[in-house]
Sequence to fold (696 residues):
Amino acid sequence: MNKKIIKTASVIAVGAGAAALYKAKFAKDNDSDNGSCGCKNSNGKDDDKKSMTDKVIEKWCQYVDDSDGKIKSKNRGNATDNYEKSDYQNTERGKYDKNSKGIYYASGNYEAFARPKKPVGIEEKSAYIVGSGLGALAAACFLVRDAKMPGENIHILEALDIAGGACDGINDASRGYIMRGGREMEDHFECLWDLFRSIPSLENKDESVLDEFYYLNKEDPNYSLCRVTTDRGKDAELGGKFGLSRKGCIEIMRLFFTSDEQLYDKKIEDFFDDEVFDSNFWLYWRTMFAFQNWHSALEMKLYFKRFIHHIAGLPDFSALKFTRYNQYESLIMPMLKYLENAGVSFKFNTEVTNVIFDIDGKKKTAKTIECVVAGKNEEIKLTDNDLVFITNGSCTESTIYGDHEHAPTGSAKIRKSGCWSLWENIARQDMAFGNPEKFCSDVEKSKWESATITTSDEKIISYIEKICKRDSRSGKVVTGGIVSCKDSSWLLSWTINRQGQFKKQKKDEVCIWVYGLFTDAVGDYIRKQMKDCCGWEIAAEWLYHLGVPVNEIDELAKEHTNCIPTMLPYITAFFMPRRKGDRPDVIPDGSVNAAFLGQFAETPRDTIFTTEYSVRTAMEAVYGLCGVDRAVPEVWGSTYDIRELVESSVRLMDGKSPLDMELPKPLNMVKNAVLKKIKGTDIEKLLKEHGVLNEG
Fold:
């Protein structure tokens, strides 16, 4: 696409949408039979005397397909061209046709409230689920609820002695409280909420987990009162501003409009320079999502499009929602109870090392599951009625634990095992099974370190509350998301969720989660690299950035906190630069009885590192392999909503109108002509409502 047109996009209300709306309102007597977007005059003939504005609008019509938001290089045909005119009556023909994976998508709540019929022959089928993380447990739940498979036919194979995967939260008897990470959620996790509306709450009788979550966040909404600190605990007072220059905005717009294919194996730093990297926007973004400059430009674009409706909520986290307790107790335990009641079997200490496929042309059939059970090699022979759901890859694989007195040490590369080696063994059998080396071969670029700090010390808590401006023991929102220390050499961020974060936590205890993006940097107070620090040293560095007097830090850190660090070698492995095919499709082409689950399986339009992604892959896998006749909810379409596009363009410019951008004289003439044309229309009203046009 012409670069000038891309730059004009933000000026004309993110041009594609505005042009499409303008075209729909002002085009005259279009000929619907010829499939053309070309403008006609009132006599139905081409008008060779079009104004400059009309020509610009017509040019946009050639590029923009307003039905699905995809950029086109040619005009689109009329949908009715595919049928005889006598067959026009059913305008939604084909809407419920399943794709090659055996699924179809739908928006709205019509399909969401439908209860699917029992698939034919489901009682004779069995399912083997590799792993017991969120995606695996969700698959088991969908098998029970929607595929109506008998629970005793479902077998979950887990290498550890506990379920939950990355959604953890434990009180280790020898170390203390440990949370390797946290989960940020939002309204439009369509598959996640579809699942948890059916999982009974363990806390409140006659409520689902969704009911419990809904009322919790409605009565205690999340938002931050201090998002960023500097100069040892002082509010950075960024005012919620992104601080992007005109050039920085254009760099983001350019990435937004670049096709996926052009982003294959590209890094974010290939598209952004200091105009973005030095901005508040990048500080907000990278600390919230854990992006590094060298991570995938494609994933950055997908995130931007997926969550464009939350751009305004980035500075204060008002877009986010959190569980009452850690994710293990709030999400995993209710699922385990649901599956236990359904009769699903769990086989712990069972490490699956390979799934052997019979590949006959394009047809792929899983025949054998190879595993190690209590140190002994075993095989599970699969019949035509057996289905296999495989968790390939893991962001928490090979976690290295430290404690208050010891740093998390060890060789992550040597310890690569479990989900990664399983995926490598499967991938050797066919290209359709993906390319795990893209994600797990460079831990220096996929690692960061987190730590859980527990304290009941009043002095430390007073410094916390000075920053977050809330009572940390109230049981309600405390920090409202992470607080990032802008001038930290480790780029430390920390958060306190509702206390207690553990059901058995003492009332006077506060659990703080801390993470650092730059583990190889030397600290500002502790003059060591973060990766070499023991727990109390990480606590000391954190206290330094809270503003605790230097002469008090060591004693408070050593004697009045308990800090458990965890090094996560693959925590952002899914952000590594990639291309299509590096992640296998949830159901690979030709697969008749096997599917992939979780963050390293491929599903359209959604973004990894979310609870929603794991649950979505589970729903697609179960619906496709079992023939469940119900739509998968499509990813929320805010990126195709002209209101969200206009709103986000204004927000990115800190409330300034894109129309105030300096433009070359010819483009400025076009802008003025367009504004004159839309005066008095719904488009003008829309632009005024979202701050692009001033009233009057």
